[in-house]
Amino acid sequence: MLMKSYWMQSDGVQAQIELREVQRPVAGPGQILVRVRASGLNRGEFILGHGLHKSGAAKPIGMEAAGEVVSCGPGVTGFVPGDRVMGRAAGAFAEFVIFTQSEAMKMPDALTWNQAAAIPLTSIVVFEMLVVQGGLRAGEWMLIPGVTSGVGVTALAMGKALGAQVIGTSGSQAKLDQIKSSGLDLGICTREANFHDEVMAATGGKGVDLVINVVGGSVFAECIRTLAFEGRLATVGYVDGVLHADMDIEALHAKRLRLYGVSNKLRSVEQRAQALPEFKKQILPLMAQGLCLPRIHETLPFERMLDAKAMMDSNQQLGKIVLEGLK
Questions:
Q1: What's the confidence (pLDDT) of residue 74?
Q2: CA separation (Å) from 8 to 40, 91, 122, 271, 284?
Q3: Which single residue of 9, 228, 288, 322 could bond 108 by disulfide (Cβ 3.0 to 4.6 Å)?
Q4: Which residue(s) pair with 236 in the sheet?
Q5: CA nearest neighbour of 143 among 204, 192, 184, 191
Q6: What digits encode the pLDDT tens for the residues 306-321?
Q7: Structural domain spans, the chain
């Protein structure tokens, strides 16, 4: 049985996306076949320098989806046909996709397909970054350079739901104004590494406890300067393309700082799934109450994948772009 699926082929410099007709997958041991109702776009998948697509290799694209269980493979428990589920999935821009049981989650009833499709990758990464690795506690200060990015707005919403005070930077004052209602305590309009003084003033000279660096190397040194004693710095992206930065080793040493990277690139399925039980326990109940939900910028029909990618490339969106399932 055939289905439609988007594929991308790269020569290392440019990438070509095409819609193909391929065989519908069959659920194997520990797997779930899902009819896709919506899938979320993620910038990293389309950045060739991230290494997710090797030169000359064509592969199905899409990394997260929501839909209905069609069938379950041997050994699957806790899921039955008809269940509404969401999860990470390779090749999610398709009519049908395979979830592994370890990365599948039942959707809270309050969520729409579009909301659910925007959760499995970004929200779980943000949960790991803030809670599992970052140890964020209620009352702490968090700084997000690039707060109006997809990861940024998700980190803002989750941080506020967890009781943090949040400062964010963006080159767009209009975007900062739009997310003020999400609880942003201080928005700094800048594209430069010049936010230290405002951050220190807002925190009474203490500095922030956690920095979520979405921007990259151009603001790395400034992020270090803003950290409080025993502060933590997460590097989750480098949209500026700057991969090297100066390190203030004296500050690292004296303030007992902790620096960590956030990426799923080299992780196994088992490693990616490690945080899922705690995510279900701590975050899904908040989402069921309407808290820390993903911000959806726009939803486009399945046939408009190239338009969705162009919208992402334009860097004008605020929040996630979602592709609807083929009707």
A1: 98
A2: 16, 10, 21, 26, 32
A3: 288
A4: none
A5: 184
A6: 999 999 888 788 989 9
A7: 2-119+294-324, 123-261
